[in-house]
Amino acid sequence: MSDKWTERHIPDQHGRVAIVTGANTGLGFETARALAARGAHVVLAVRNVEKGRQAADRIDGRVDVQVLDLTSLDSIRSAAAELRAAHPRIDLLINNAGVMYTPRETTVDGFELQFATNHLGHFALTGLLLDRLLPVPGSRVVTVSSTGHRIKAAIHFDDLQWERSYSRVGAYGQAKLANLMFTYELNRRLAARGTTSAVAAHPGVSNTDLMRNAPAVLRVPVNLLAPVLIQKSAMGALPTLRAATDPAVRGGEYYGPGNRGETRGHPRRVESSPESHEEAVQRRLWAVSEELTGVTFPVGEAVLPA
């Protein structure tokens, strides 16, 4: 693998369909732009259609806009139905959209906002679209996590929706840990099929608007260190792009920036926390996610080693 993987390494994407959530700005926009530049038919799956159209106008290539509100299961089901009707095959599903450190808020379905947007919404969308990926050799589901999966991170099965007490940072950590656990469990379930794989990525510390809800105690040091800590969105999107397109990538891998702290730099394979690899917790999270969303996947439970 190249030590300095860039957009130039993206293979030709002509004939491939890529759906990118949260693609009207930041990392999602850069991901969509780069895929379209290499010939992919890209769908910007966004909550605000007007902003999505404005983003599409800035991208050279074949680009469509699909309304998708990850905080609403009704919207997710409607979007999935429209995407299924429009695309008999899907090569890439990139679960990029997310929120970070928001004040406690519940969605229309009664879920805590960060857990709903970052995990449950993408879990449901993936389950509803997966049969469009399964017949396609080399298809991938890429889910964007964060180094925040290590911070105050656990899956709080006794209070998943943070109804007893709320921590902005803890809720974000739980959601990003869930992204990784979902990826690893999904990839095990896909392994027997041999066509579709699940991969995770994180952007390091990138110049996006995600930090707007962060407590001042976090914003101040980040702003002070910005010149040496924060990289541009185009660089932050490279781990996702590598996870999505590099032929050497294997299912169940995790990609992030290559410097020692994984804050910036060219993408490479990285390691997630030991907690993220706890298979019993992954399986329990999967079962709870199916129950909460009402979405089941067209792949069975992974076969455990004897």
TrEMBL record:
<dbReference type="GO" id="GO:0016491">
    <property type="term" value="F:oxidoreductase activity"/>
</dbReference>
<feature type="compositionally biased region" description="Basic and acidic residues">
    <location>
        <begin position="261"/>
        <end position="277"/>
    </location>
</feature>
<dbReference type="InterPro" id="IPR002347">
    <property type="entry name" value="SDR_fam"/>
</dbReference>
<feature type="region of interest" description="Disordered">
    <location>
        <begin position="249"/>
        <end position="277"/>
    </location>
</feature>
<dbReference type="Pfam" id="PF00106">
    <property type="entry name" value="adh_short"/>
</dbReference>
<comment type="similarity">
    <text>Belongs to the short-chain dehydrogenases/reductases (SDR) family.</text>
</comment>
<protein>
    <submittedName>
        <fullName>Putative oxidoreductase</fullName>
    </submittedName>
</protein>
<dbReference type="InterPro" id="IPR036291">
    <property type="entry name" value="NAD(P)-bd_dom_sf"/>
</dbReference>
<keyword id="KW-0560">Oxidoreductase</keyword>
